[in-house]
Amino acid sequence: MPNSSSTKTSKENQPMVFIVDDEPAIRAALRLLIKSVGYTVECFASADQFFSQFDPDQKGCLILDIRMPGMSGMDLQEKLAKNNALLPIIMISGHGEIPMAVKAVQKGAIDFLQKPFSDQQLLDRISQAMDIDQKRHNEHDVQQEAQLKYDSLTPREREIFTEVVAGKLNKVIAYELNISTRTVEIHRSKAMEKMGAKNLSELINLSNLVLKKD
Length: 214
Hints:
Rossmann fold; single chain; five-stranded parallel β-sheet
């Protein structure tokens, strides 16, 4: 499991470019290039080493070699996905690894670069990845806030919340739950207040965040 405390104190809110490649010369060259344009960089010689210290909350992006001894880049990508990591991944691959790289993109990597690639290609992808990472974190923060509000609802408020966003009228909900329409109105009003929704449209948008797994 990633260590959620190892990087949090020293790197909190500081986007990082992580490089995971088993070849020291490639790590050194990429580090020098990326630092030259102002990014903070951290290098790892193996996927296992990176995963053992990775903080899922860390912002930035990951440049990942697809084929390495031990845990492969594909394996690391899968582990990060299972841990709900938001970090955008740029795969780097050799000529014979293109089918694997395409598969990695299909599984969520934002792109792959075939070696040898130009400096500008990589820097452009990193810039794109940083924008994607910021968007993902913003969306995650909104979802987390909505979830906290939803968790504050009583069981009855959640029940009525679900029925309301499904498009049912108050009188229909009242009939199905064997309660008065007035009771439905009260619980509906409280649910909207707690969720911070001013109207039904806002409530439905919030429901898409908190009920999407239901």
